[in-house]
Fold this protein.
Amino acid sequence: MDLLGTLRALTRWWWLTLLLLLLSFGGVAFFYTVLPWTYQGTASVLFLSSPIQTKEAGGNPYQQFADSLHVSAEAVGRAVMDARTVESLRRHGFTSAYTLSPAPVYAEPALEVEVVGVNPRNIQSTLDALLAEIPRSLATMQSGMSERAKVRTRVIAASREPRRVPKEKVRLLVMVVGVELLLCVALPVVVDTVTDRRRTAR
């Protein structure tokens, strides 16, 4: 059916089209209420050279960033993302999804932590648990080493409370609106087509 035929069908069955539009508005309002908001908590953990490495910089770890620190950050990130660590955190109630991404090689040696979910309180508690797990995992990797030879970590930024991320909910609502508008057009056209065929058959 062409555009003119579609417009004719919508006009002929205007009451059905209007009813479907009203139901669509109600559906959008319903899904807006039912669908939860997504929240996000973030943090950045910087990896610092050992006291031995920073000796040449007068003991200032912020002036001595070796390439090996990126390796340390990536190794710790993989360890904390390991399935066993994820399961251990979940058993302790930290159930929000998270990712740990090492900074690019040309940037500072840091881990970017991101926690997402629908429960702001659990997101924040999961983020705090991860910030405690990162240095613990690093300490495990460096067990047996001299304290002056150990890489250190420092949290340089962390959200105090998760922020709302509307993108996911808006995307779902747009999909709902698209499906409902399609039905608002398709159903009157189908009804009109069936009615015409029956009339022709008679």
In short: The longest helix spans residues 167-201. Residues 58 and 159 are 32 Å apart (CA to CA).
